[in-house]
Amino acid sequence: MKLYNSFTNKKEEFVPINKNEVKIYVCGQTTYDYCHLGHARKEVVFDMIRRWLIALGYQVTYVENITDIDDKIINRAIENNESITDLTNRYINYMHEDFDKLGIMRPDVEPRATDYIPQMVNIIDSLINKGYAYKADNGDVYYSVKKFKDYGKLSGKLLEDLNIGERVDIELHKQNPMDFVLWKAAKNNEPYWESSLGNGRPGWHIECSAMSEEILGKNFDIHGGGQDLQFPHHENEIAQSEAHNGCKFANYWIHNGFLNINDEKMSKSLGNFLTLREVLSDHNPEVIKLLMLKTHYRSPLNFNYSLLEDAKQNLTKLYLSIKTFSIDIEHYKINWENEFAAKFKNAMNDDFNTPLAIGILFELTNSINISKNEELAKLLISLANMIGILNYQPLKFLQEGIDLSNIEIEKYISIRDNAKNNKNYELADEIRNKLQNQGILLEDNVNGTSWRKI
Length: 454
Description:
By secondary structure, the protein is of the alpha/beta class. It has helices at residues 37-55, 71-80, 84-101, 117-129, 204-216, 230-245, 276-280, 285-293, 305-322, 339-348, 354-371, 374-385, 394-398, 406-421, 425-437, and strands at 2-5, 10-13, 21-30, 59-67, 133-135, 141-143, 180-185, 200-202, 220-226, 250-256, 259-261, 264-265, 301-303, 440-445, 448-453.
């Protein structure tokens, strides 16, 4: 299998540290608001990657953190006149609800930043002792980026080329404008922890260094997150962890591309900001998933409701091909020498090429429609499950969102059958048209009449 390593900017053969085991750390949510569609894309991407690695037979340990202490969290709690714990717990619950509905596997470990303060303090003490960090006159502790000779090696940014004020705060007590905070001295009306560094709380970047080391070790296989985190967050993680431990941090870096709304960057100021929760309220989760997987994970993804409708039609085509089968794939084993399976595997092993893999699923669908072969239907479901789709019973998906009850629809079908038997074709057509106007398509076949949502 080859994956694109953001660290080297090229595809590389994936060789895990331990032969049959993969350790993954992905940067998670800052829990002060609902998750938006950009968060959803990251979740769909890394869920797909995790599922495929499991399908290949690896034992995967997947860690995704939660930031539950942060300036934005503190400010929102003050605005709401509630405790930070109440705020973060509520939005963590909302996050779980949304991601569960989207069909995202829960992390094996989901550490919260506030549970790892001692580990953060330990790393910061180490960095001070090694000369990589310093305590400023305001009590904050900063990392001195000039002391880390390889700073910028992930993002390709040269320290001398970075503009003052670009993605950093201009603060007079820093030795260098690019230095970043490791520990923030306690302020009035803010939470703090007692430590050897003085009373205070951690900066954002140190969280992931501490949690990944504690759970996965000093060196692990894959570190991931959104493209926006490559600099400065992931760059700073490397600087902290490698200065502290004296060894390589993560072997492979994976970053998913941005999500745009109608070809524009999603932004509250542009009025095109969409939460996952509001999109899920009106659309099937697998439709959202398929739309996201149809674009390669490293490419920018454009989202609009027209594209979402196209994805719905695509998914409907997949479900229609298997609706007449009663299939149990619990003990089904894929024959990877099968033409479709082999092409699917080659696509996924080429840097998780889901657009090509999904195209192969549609080739398989066409073959099922022609052959009515149940083994091919089992193969379709099994392959699709490996990227997180086709998890519904076909009829459940095809009949979703109908206002009429199943009993009412079947009653109309029975009346129509009687009308046809009595050669009252005008009434039969009237019933068909009436149901079609309500989004229900009747399909006559040798076994009678079935129905689905249009």
